[in-house]
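Changelog-adjacent note: as of this version, every example in the card shows the full chain rather than a window. The one below runs 70 residues end to end.
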Amino acid sequence: MIKLGKTTGMRHGAPKRKRKTTESLLIIRLCTSSINMKIKATEKSVHLTLKAFDPLSEALINETLNTLFF
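Full-length structure tokens:
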């Protein structure tokens, strides 16, 4: 039998997860009218966030990244 309208969640007093924080060594932001890019580097990883608002900018960025990393 399925009871509708009943939600299950964490019980009260459950231990909360602590998020591990890593210090960023490098943060680069590039914001123009057609590109929004952020590069964040830590000791173990590099994160790239990229938004392109027109196809020409997107193609340019893709070619640049392919040249740099591959």
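Structural remarks: Residues 26-69 form one domain.
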